Amino acid sequence: MSRIVRWGARFGGLFNDNKGGPWGGGGSDGGDGSGGPRNPWGQQPKRRKPPTPGNLGSLDEFLKKSRERFGDRFPTPGAGGKPYWLYGLAVVALLWVLFTSFHVIGQQERGVITRFGRYAGTLQPGIGTTFPLPIDRVQTIDVSEIRPIDIGSADPSSDNLILTRDENLVDMAYQVRWNIKDPEQFLFQMRDPEVTIGEVAQSAMRAVLADVTLDEAIGQGRADIGDRASAIMQQVLDRYGTGVAIQGVSIKQSDPPAPVLNAFKEVSAAQQDAQSYINQARAYALQLTAKAQGEAAAFDKVYVQYKLAPEVTRRRMYYETMEDVLSKVDKTIIEAPGVTPYLPLPEVRGRAREVNPQ
């Protein structure tokens, strides 16, 4: 608009010497000096009144001070410069690049980079840089977290029956513990990790139990069964390229099926009683054996003494045997004629004096 006014002023200057124009003389008011109408082509363009310092907003004051501080290198809006919103957009873009290009990865974490949805690398622990969003995206994965999967249940109403080598069924409930060892394979090789690991665990457990008996499955062999199942699972998952590490398989329940559980408990109790009786018999046999060995050793000692003095040894053995026998039976004493049932000590003493007078 200001350009149009300036061009109009130049065009009107061509007629300044023509006093008899249709608008009168070329006086200062554009007429003949008699107060006539002004020449519209001779008017100067109006300028806006500069705002007073008191009317400046906080943003205007900040930009003004910034221009003064940097030597007026910032263009002035409204005088051929760029508008303020461009500077705000540039600041937002810079912050966006900073916050989406730098990533802090923890010690137990890994950052998987996808560039337009395609795998582009893995960030190790520390500070890593990528292209800003939406070019690169970083997904942080904790590789140290142990994640459990429970298979089977301790609830009697739900069974997880597996056939053993001796054609018996066993109800198994166990837990699989695993973690991530390769983030790239874990994200892009498996669609549903927990379902895949659970199916592999069931297959491995059935393969192991098919090679053991029922007594081994419900007895002391459960720890070995868990170790064997864990090794088979790791081999299968590595062959699939899942990027998963199996930390262990722990068996929480190993029982016969619910319909025969009571009968099985009775059989187990009977087997335990039989084993208890067998242990008692073995203990008694060991006791008798030890006693016989002791008696044999004592007889050997007596035989040595018998060879040295047979008559004395026979008499002593007779006395010991009679003492042992008579001490255990009831005794009856019969008085025969001429036998004094007691010792007449005074008479015996008198007779002794007569025989041996002093």
Brief sketch in words of this structure:
The chain is α+β, with helices and mostly antiparallel strands and 358 residues long.
Mind explaining what this structure looks like?
This protein is α+β, with helices and mostly antiparallel strands and 358 residues long. Among the domains are: 2-42, no CATH class; 64-142, no CATH class; 147-256, Band 7 domain (Tetrahydropterin Synthase, Chain A, 2-Layer Sandwich), CATH 3.30.479. Helix content is 46%, strand content 17%. The chain contains 10 helices and 9 strands. It has helices at residues 2-13, 58-69, 84-101, 183-189, 193-209, 214-218, 222-240, 261-308, 310-326, 345-355, and strands at 102-105, 109-115, 118-123, 126-129, 136-142, 147-151, 161-163, 169-180, 244-255. Strands 6, 7, 8 and 9 form a 4-stranded antiparallel β-sheet that branches. Strands 3-2-5 form a 3-stranded antiparallel β-sheet, with no helix packed on it. Helix 8 crosses helix 9 (310-326). The longest helix is centred in the last third of the chain and has 48 residues, at 261-308. The relative contact order is 0.05. Mean pLDDT is 76; it is low at 1-5, 11-37 and 51-56.
